[in-house]
Design goal:
20% strand, 13 strands, 310 residues, 5-stranded mixed sheet, alpha/beta
Length: 310
């Protein structure tokens, strides 16, 4: 129950709204309310100030959150120590990624890892960058695979730079009839201003990267459609819902030709203009045991094999 209460309090604090917290955690709002109410009855204090907008944690709620984080970190440390002492016979690793990483990356990673460590339990998550940083610091996450995190206590090991492409639907002013691939240098990007653009949640580092780039070149798009991940964003762009900038690995253009291009253009963005940095983030002191070192090496190897080269 403490782990659920910790997650609920953290998300309520981040969202300032009970319903949004429930949506983010994929539970119902009444369930969160019931867990919070039971904790309030148990401790005899109010944990949530429901009269404020957005809602906030009370002082008691903040203190309880702090204690729960410490408890969670101690439990995670204990788990890792016991795992190490048992030589990883029944170990556990939790790995999270951001939206620049396609799910296809994890299949060869897990296959190679489990051949060597068949009894280590690995949990794979997809979380926004801000949540990954919190989880790494609390000890509930071992690795974050994606863009760098801006925390001096977190070590970042660069692996690759992910090439990005602009997907242009046939309802865009930039669209060129009868072509699949178009030269990015020839595009008048100002024509994208005001057009529908498919994005991922704004708090995500990948969205910030794309939005910052568009702003730097004077393009103001209409982020009219926000979806949970880049995979869905790429599918919507291919189906002419709006333009989108996505990692090149997300689009399989092998079956598309100029005559059968699905009504889209693909423009490869020069890496000198825009690229997604990609690597592994972890708390330095935790990358010690042999299986952990092996996992880092496997992820590095697989990502480099699956990163398009230009």
């Amino acid at each position: 129950m403490n782990s659920k209460l910790l997650s609920f309090l953290e998300e309520i604090k981040a969202q300032g709204n009970m319903s949004k917290a429930a949506q983010s955690l994929f539970v119902t709002q009444p369930y969160i309310s019931r867990v919070i109410k039971n904790a309030e009855d148990n401790f005899g204090v109010k944990l949530i100030d429901r009269s404020s907008h957005p809602i906030q944690l009370t002082y008691a709620g903040e203190r309880l959150l702090s204690f729960l984080r410490e408890e969670d970190q101690l439990r995670a440390t204990l788990d890792r120590e016991m795992t190490h002492l048992s030589q990883f016979k029944y170990g556990h690793l939790t790995i999270a990624s951001n939206e620049a990483v396609s799910n296809d990356i994890y299949k060869p990673v897990l296959v190679k890892f489990y051949k060597k460590y068949p009894k280590v339990h690995a949990q794979i998550l997809s979380v926004p960058s801000r949540d990954a940083e919190k989880r790494l610091m609390s000890g509930s996450l071992d690795f974050f695979v994606g863009q760098p995190l801006s925390n001096p206590k977190i070590q970042y090991m660069p692996i690759a730079k992910i090439p990005l492409i602009l997907v242009i639907p046939n309802n865009s002013k930039l669209y060129q009839e009868g072509k699949l691939f178009v030269d990015y240098a020839d595009l008048d990007m100002s024509k994208l201003s005001g057009e529908s653009f498919v994005s991922i949640p704004h708090e995500n580092n990948y969205h910030r990267l794309v939005a910052s780039y568009l702003s730097s070149i004077g393009v103001s798009v209409e982020f009219s459609i926000e979806v949970p991940d880049v995979g869905l964003a790429s599918e919507l762009a291919v189906n002419h819902v709006g333009a989108s900038i996505i990692p090149e690995s997300y689009l399989d253009a092998s079956e598309l030709t100029d005559s059968n291009n699905g009504g889209i253009n693909i423009a490869k963005i020069p890496t000198s203009d825009l690229v997604a940095d990609f690597g592994i983030s972890f708390i330095k002191a935790k990358k010690t045991a042999e299986p952990v070192e092996d996992l880092v090496n496997i992820i590095t190897e697989v990502v480099k094999e699956n990163t398009p080269k230009r």
